[in-house]
């Protein structure tokens, strides 16, 4: 009976040691940082577009050229905070860079 | 006249000493979490406190099982006899070399004062600490469990319980030295055999 | 200060061209600046005082810095998604210089290491701004004035429209996970914190870890000259501590944030709104939230103290005209606060009494960027400590280690002490008696 108990204890100690050393190795392994958020590879080479092969005299001409293909971008962008610098608050007040004051 | 009695079985001794160690450790780590001490650092103090607490719960579960199955719980049943005599003994009699008014026997190991103290410990203090500890650990479930409490109040009761344990520990430790010779009770709790 | 009356200087960071007064036409889509965000060459820059226009021929700014002419065709033929550099052209330099305003965003984020920013780590995850600031049809996610960042307390599942701008959008509400195991007891309590503590609180232990940031700006001392020449006194951090145009400035690096309850929305005092000036700084831009607000969590902030012009009669903050030619009233040309205030308030269509005093103001910046590696995150003891912890000023929560009920501690300690005295006396008496015998 005693012998059986000792054998069992020894067996479990052995298993625990082996298991621990195996896991220890895993922990030590360096996992290369995953590049989760690679930007999508572009499906267009903008240098090949005729609309852009021009000698632009003003930046507005560039914008017009952009919008000649991206024909919804102008309507989208002109409503955004980056363009309006205006934010209508839930309390009716006007926020946004164009309306607030700070101490810088 | 010295007679040796086997009073404390192996499990009882194991239970007593591991409980003692756990409670002292819980007091140290607990008062560190409370901000009164600085020993392990807060993070370790917290983790050790929880581990020790869980260990104490497991130990207590075994102890309850043991007390119920062996009938040892009867030792804690409060009795009225001899309480004034024992109080007299500790205030005056002990200095005059009078004998202890209570005689230890295997079927009544604890004197009436001990019975009162220990049953208070078992029925009030331990449950108080276990319940408040469980609540503190699971405060995010309170709204689901329908418990209306504030973290502050529960923490207050847990701290009060800790002070009660500390108070008990001081008195208890001292009283263990009142045997004859002074280490008699302590030796009994270690070896199981006590001279009476 | 404010954009109004200072257009051409301020709108050099406007994603558009020619916003030079209040009559700018926001419906003319050709005035949109596509290139400032979509340039991938790094050669497109807007001139600092040209109302948003890039330099079309070589130009010098402030007598020192050369801005090379932009080759529009070259830039237009090399457009692509936004990069850290393209967003940073404006956002790194807000407040008028590198890292001046934000404290958690500056030019070191162009190619940061892991220590500075775990997500943007150029050799690691290499996030761009848009990785988190998810964008749909040019609408970029973020906290906008009184509107919290989208995504709620939810994962970035399709049903939440893929908003990914909050930490919990990717990391979830129980973010600490063991590497090799399914479950780790040690992380349970850390994860419990997320109900009341924002991720940023522990994981942005310090701010201004890249460049120094401005922490104090006293405009009232601006306009002093030495022998008719402007004064620029540099401080130890390589930033001016006095500047004739700007006043007295203070800078800091590796600073400890202040902590406030924050529900994701902000309050503003707008120009023209009445505000009393007291001994405490006026909180012109401050986070909303309280411990009883279930959406509020403890969050780190950079406080920016300032002293700025104020109309003591109308009790309003003054928009001063800073930028403009001589004779326009602009402070940087004419050095007269009253004239600057009159010109600025007139441009804004707001009343001005003619009186100018200076009031102390404070502006809180929420810190969400430059997330440090986990080994640099705050340890428990940074807050769970009796005195001097990071959250010493936060009320409304019971913080173990900081808080206690002093009466209980006193009673408990007294009782234990009495017990200790009694047993000591009792024991001594026994020992003495034993020796007597």
From TrEMBL, chain A:
Q: Which domain of life is it from?
A: Bacteria
Question: Which SUPFAM superfamilies does the entry mention?
Answer: Multiheme cytochromes (SSF48695)
Record-given protein name: Cytochrome c family protein
The record lists the organism as Thermodesulfatator atlanticus
UniProtKB/TrEMBL annotation, chain B:
Per UniProt, the keywords (alphabetical) are: Cell membrane, Electron transport, Heme, Iron, Membrane, Metal-binding, Transmembrane, Transmembrane helix, Transport
Say yes or no: keyword Iron present: yes
Q: SUPFAM superfamilies attached here?
A: Transmembrane di-heme cytochromes
Q: Which residues cross the membrane?
A: 14-33, 45-68, 116-142, 154-175
**Every Cytochrome b561 bacterial/Ni-hydrogenase domain range:** 8-191
Q: Which GO terms describe its molecular function?
A: electron transfer activity; heme binding; iron ion binding
Pfam families recorded for this chain?
A: Ni_hydr_CYTB
Subcellular localization, as worded in the UniProt entry: Cell membrane
Signal peptide (UniProt feature, chain positions): none
The principal localisation class reads: membrane
Membrane-related topology note = Multi-pass membrane protein
Q: Name one GO biological process term.
A: respiratory electron transport chain
Quick check: keyword RNA-binding in the entry? no
Kindly give the InterPro entries that the UniProt entry links to this protein: Cyt_b561_bac/Ni-Hgenase, Di-haem_cyt_TM, Hydrogenase_cytochrome, Ni-dep_Hydgase_cyt-B
GO CC, any one term: plasma membrane
**Protein family per UniProt:** Belongs to the HupC/HyaC/HydC family.
Per its record, how is this protein called by name?
Cytochrome B
Which species is the source of this protein?
Thermodesulfatator atlanticus
From TrEMBL, chain C:
Q: Which UniProt keywords apply?
A: Membrane, Signal, Transmembrane, Transmembrane helix
Question: Does the UniProt entry include the keyword Transmembrane?
Answer: yes
**Gene Ontology MF term list:** oxidoreductase activity
Q: Which Pfam families match?
A: Cytochrome_cB (PF11783)
Chain segments annotated as transmembrane? 411-433
Q: Which domain of life is it from?
A: Bacteria
By its UniProt entry, which InterPro entries does this protein fall under?
A: Multihaem_cyt_sf, Multiheme_Cytochr_ET, Octahem_Cyt_c
Q: Which Gene3D superfamilies does the entry link to? A: Flavocytochrome C3, Chain A
Transmembrane: present as a keyword of the record?
yes
NCBIfam families linked to this entry: octaheme_Shew
Q: What is this protein called in UniProt? A: Tetrathionate reductase family octaheme c-type cytochrome
Whose protein is this, by species? Thermodesulfatator atlanticus
Organism placement in taxonomy: Bacteria, Pseudomonadati, Thermodesulfobacteriota, Thermodesulfobacteria, Thermodesulfobacteriales
């Amino acid at each position: 009976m005693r012998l059986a108990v000792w054998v069992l204890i020894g067996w479990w100690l052995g298993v625990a040691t082996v298991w621990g050393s195996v896991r220890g190795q895993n922990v030590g392994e360096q996992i290369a940082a995953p590049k989760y958020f690679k930007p999508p590879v572009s499906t267009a080479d903008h240098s090949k577009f005729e609309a852009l092969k021009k000698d632009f005299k003003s930046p507005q001409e560039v914008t017009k050229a952009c919008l000649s293909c991206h024909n919804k971008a102008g309507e989208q962008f002109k409503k955004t905070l980056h363009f309006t610098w205006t934010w209508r608050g839930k309390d009716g007040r006007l926020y946004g860079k164009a309306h607030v004051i700070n101490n810088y | 006249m010295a007679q040796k009695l086997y009073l404390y079985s192996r499990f009882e001794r194991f239970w007593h000493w591991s409980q003692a160690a756990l409670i002292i450790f819980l007091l140290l780590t607990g008062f560190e979490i409370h901000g009164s001490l600085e020993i392990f650092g807060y993070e370790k103090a917290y983790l050790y406190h929880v581990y020790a607490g869980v260990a104490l719960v497991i130990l207590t579960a075994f102890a309850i099982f043991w007390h119920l199955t062996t009938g040892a719980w009867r030792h804690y049943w409060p009795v009225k006899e001899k309480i004034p005599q024992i109080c007299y003994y500790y205030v005056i009699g002990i200095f005059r070399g009078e004998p202890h008014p209570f005689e230890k026997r295997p079927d009544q190991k604890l004197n009436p004062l001990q019975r009162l103290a220990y049953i208070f410990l078992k029925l009030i203090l331990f449950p108080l600490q276990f319940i408040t500890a469980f609540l503190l650990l699971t405060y995010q479930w309170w709204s689901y469990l329908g418990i209306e409490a504030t973290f502050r109040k529960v923490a207050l009761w847990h701290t009060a319980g800790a002070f009660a344990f500390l108070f008990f520990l001081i008195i208890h430790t001292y009283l263990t030295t009142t045997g004859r010779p002074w280490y008699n009770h302590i030796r009994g709790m270690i070896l199981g055999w006590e001279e009476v | 200060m404010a954009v109004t009356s200072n257009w051409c200087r301020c709108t050099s960071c406007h994603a558009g061209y020619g916003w030079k007064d209040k009559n700018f036409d926001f419906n003319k889509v050709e005035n949109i600046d596509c290139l400032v965000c979509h340039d991938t060459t790094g050669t497109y820059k807007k001139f600092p005082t040209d109302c948003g226009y890039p330099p079309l021929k070589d130009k010098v700014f402030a007598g020192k810095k050369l801005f090379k002419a932009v080759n529009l065709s070259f830039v237009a033929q090399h457009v692509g998604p936004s990069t850290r550099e393209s967003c940073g052209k404006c956002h790194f330099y807000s407040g008028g210089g590198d890292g001046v305003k934000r404290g958690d965003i500056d030019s070191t984020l162009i190619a940061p290491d892991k220590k500075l920013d775990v997500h943007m780590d150029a050799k690691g995850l290499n996030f761009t701004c848009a990785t988190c600031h998810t964008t749909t049809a040019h609408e970029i996610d973020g906290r906008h004035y009184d509107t919290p960042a989208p995504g709620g307390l939810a994962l970035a599942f399709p049903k939440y429209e893929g908003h990914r701008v909050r930490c919990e959008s990717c990391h979830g509400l129980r973010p600490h996970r063991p590497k090799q195991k399914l479950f780790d007891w040690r992380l349970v309590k850390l994860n419990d914190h997320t109900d009341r503590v924002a991720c940023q609180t522990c994981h942005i232990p310090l701010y201004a870890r890249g460049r120094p940031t401005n922490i104090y700006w006293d405009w009232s001392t601006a306009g002093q000259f030495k022998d008719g020449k402007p004064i620029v006194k540099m401080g130890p951090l390589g930033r001016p501590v006095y500047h004739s145009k700007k006043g007295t400035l203070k800078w800091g690096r590796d600073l400890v944030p202040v902590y406030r309850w924050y529900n994701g929305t902000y309050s503003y005092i707008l120009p023209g709104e009445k505000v009393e000036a007291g001994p405490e700084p006026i909180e012109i831009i401050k986070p909303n939230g309280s411990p009883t607000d279930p959406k509020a969590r403890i969050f780190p902030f950079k406080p920016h103290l300032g002293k700025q012009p104020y109309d003591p009669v109308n009790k309003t903050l003054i928009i001063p005209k800073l930028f403009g030619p001589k004779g326009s009233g602009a402070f940087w040309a004419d050095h007269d606060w009253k004239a600057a205030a009159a010109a600025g308030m007139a441009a804004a269509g707001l009343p001005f009494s003619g009186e100018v005093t200076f009031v102390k103001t404070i502006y809180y910046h929420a810190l969400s960027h430059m997330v440090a590696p986990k080994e640099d995150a705050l340890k428990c003891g940074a807050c769970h400590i009796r005195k001097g912890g990071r959250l010493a000023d936060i009320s409304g929560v019971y913080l173990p280690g900081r808080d206690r009920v002093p009466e209980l501690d006193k009673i408990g300690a007294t009782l234990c002490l009495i017990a200790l005295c009694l047993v000591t006396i009792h024991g001594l008496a026994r020992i003495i008696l034993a020796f007597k015998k």
